[in-house]
């Protein structure tokens, strides 16, 4: 399989055997931390260190670093980038047919290659071999998932990239895990709190975590919860940091609002509270009184908010409506959060850092994505410093990495 051409799109040339032979043999797993496929010789023959494709040079060192880090997870790419920027899945020989599949050669391929490599590795374990065309089909399937995500959430990125942007901003200003207390307002759904999710990596970086969120990530602990949290900050000029986000699932069929959970045979709603409230309003059922049934308060609150602004949830397709619903849930969450937070804590130089967005629960084996939407620092006088561009680039120039396959 070869990446050919230049950015933004390139052909993935899939080499398959005319006799139907399968790729076996040297397709073992490639562990993280082992030698980089981008520097290994192909077929056992000595070779000089190759250069990355022309397209990667245009995308910068970060792209190349991410590609090498993620692609090295398995032996999906069995031999290195050669001088022409191609990678063969089959050894050199005769009797091969070439099938060309057009895939954009841009940053989407980094995540697609990582997810595809895991599935290819599992299939090799199960069957002992896999053809180049089967590998290409898996890669295309992952690309379609990514294209769907970026079509509706341009600017979505990996949780690791979000943390890097966050650290870049706060550490320049002297905020550290030692002088900052962290809180998150995230839906308690278990799919939001798995290893590698944004909740996990932020908690590991920041240390202790105060939980402000209820259903759909809305900060239902309110002013009392924030007051308790903010008075736990370190002495002196201690800081507070809050991460708030609703979430939306996407299943392996590319359907938003659905998620195939581990151990289940079919997809279920995700976020269940948001989807359930939306379905309740669409069906014309009575809108519950918030003063009744306190045990259903959080769900009934969401129903009431959606009912009052149903006209803001729009879309030509069900996927588009679900994406719009998640953005509306973000509005609900940020509106309540803004009523709860303050800087009545710490010393004269204490600040409140707020990062909000949408957590996107990706189908396995993808890692979850996150769409940052607001990032600001509130100072003691109540003024806000918008640091979104500093962390993630110009918001007005949100890049949609989803380019259609040619």
Automatic annotation (TrEMBL):
The annotated regions of Low complexity compositional bias extend over: 9-21, 41-58
Which stretches does the entry tag as region Disordered?
1-62
- All copies of domain Limiting CO2-inducible protein B/C beta carbonyic anhydrase, residue ranges: 156-378
Q: Which domain of life is it from?
A: Eukaryota
Q: What InterPro entries has UniProt attached to this entry?
A: LCIB/C_CA (IPR040703)
The record, for Pfam families, names: LCIB_C_CA
Q: What is this protein called?
A: Limiting CO2-inducible protein B/C beta carbonyic anhydrase domain-containing protein
What is the scientific name of the source organism? Odontella aurita
């Amino acid at each position: 399989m070869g990446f050919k051409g230049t950015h933004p799109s390139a052909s993935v040339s899939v080499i398959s055997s005319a006799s139907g032979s399968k790729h076996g043999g040297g397709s073992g797993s490639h562990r993280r931390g082992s030698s980089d496929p981008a520097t290994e010789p192909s077929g056992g023959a000595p070779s000089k260190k190759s250069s990355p494709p022309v397209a990667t040079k245009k995308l910068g060192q970060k792209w190349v670093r991410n590609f090498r880090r993620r692609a090295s997870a398995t032996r999906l790419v069995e031999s290195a980038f050669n001088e022409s920027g191609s990678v063969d899945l089959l050894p050199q020989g005769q009797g091969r047919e070439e099938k060309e599949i057009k895939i954009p050669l841009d940053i989407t391929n980094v995540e697609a290659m990582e997810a595809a490599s895991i599935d290819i590795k599992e299939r090799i374990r199960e069957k002992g071999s896999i053809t180049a065309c089967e590998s290409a089909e898996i890669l295309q399937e992952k690309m379609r998932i990514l294209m769907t995500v970026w079509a509706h959430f341009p600017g979505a990125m990996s949780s690791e990239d979000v943390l890097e942007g966050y650290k870049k901003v706060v550490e320049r200003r002297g905020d550290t895990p030692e002088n900052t207390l962290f809180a998150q307002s995230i839906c308690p759904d278990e799919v939001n709190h798995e290893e590698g999710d944004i909740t996990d990596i932020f908690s590991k970086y920041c240390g202790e975590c105060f939980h402000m969120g209820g259903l759909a990530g809305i900060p239902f602990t309110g002013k009392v919860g924030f007051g308790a949290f903010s008075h736990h900050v370190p002495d002196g000029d201690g800081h507070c940091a809050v991460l708030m986000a609703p979430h939306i699932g996407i299943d392996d069929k590319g359907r938003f609002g659905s998620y195939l959970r581990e151990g289940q045979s079919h997809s279920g709603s995700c976020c269940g509270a948001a989807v359930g409230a939306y379905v309740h309003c669409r069906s014309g059922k009575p809108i519950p009184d918030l003063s009744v049934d306190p045990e259903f308060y959080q769900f009934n609150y969401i129903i009431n908010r959606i009912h009052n602004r149903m006209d803001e949830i729009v879309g030509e397709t069900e996927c588009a409506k679900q994406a719009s619903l998640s953005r509306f849930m973000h509005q609900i969450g940020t509106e309540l959060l803004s009523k709860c937070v303050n800087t009545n804590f710490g010393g004269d130089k204490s600040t409140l850092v707020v990062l909000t967005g949408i957590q996107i629960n990706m189908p396995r084996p993808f890692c979850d994505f996150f769409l940052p939407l607001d990032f600001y620092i509130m100072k003691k006088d109540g003024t806000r410093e918008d640091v979104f561009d500093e962390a993630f680039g110009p918001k007005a120039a949100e890049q949609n990495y989803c380019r259609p396959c040619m």
